[in-house]
UniProtKB/TrEMBL annotation:
Domain DUF6817: 17-101
Pfam families the record matches: DUF6817 (PF20680)
Domain of life: Bacteria
Family annotation (InterPro entries): DUF6817
Upper taxonomic lineage: Bacteria, Bacillati, Actinomycetota, Actinomycetes, Kitasatosporales
The protein's name: DUF6817 domain-containing protein
Amino acid sequence: MLPVDPPDGAWPAVEEFLRARGAAEMDHPGGTLLEHLLRVARLLGVWGADPDLRAAGLCHAVYGTDGFGQALADTGERALLGELIGERAEALVHLYASCDRGVVYPRLGSGRPVVFRDRFTGRDHIPPEPDVRAFLEVTAANELDVLTHNAELADRHGPALYRLFAASRDLLSNAAWDACVRQLGRHAPDAGPAIRIAALDHLVPTVDGEDHRH
């Protein structure tokens, strides 16, 4: 169970929904996808996230991503998820799922506001800054949890992830950035050429010039 009270008692129903959609049977670093989702929500709570953001973290993989194709629900079911976690939290889940990461992630270090590209529609748009901040919080919680549970991925992708979060430092909460520094600080680019992130999937980044077959 999460160490904070869920909004309107909704999270037990959300966990039941995730189980019904197979999250407890999907393998994931650290156990199952469901266990990962619960840890991400818990970590966001530790960082002081509000209930909407914690609920979005719990459901961040429901629609899949451009790097994690095992969706638990179709985007045609947005109203259903909205009933479970609220419209605001569902909108954050959809933003997270719809992000074309190969386009958006390089933009995180190239000025503000950040122009997103929706991978479902192919259209560019500029989300409100609070939504972009929420997106980065979920991204950090997701990736840090994965790397905590897979040392090989941590060694391989830590440098690229550090650079991603350093480039978007202004959009992260202090607690999230402190966690990134604690876990990824050893990968800070004190020397050597910079790594340009081309894309980042649900689990790990894809970096130019490297082969990542997982």
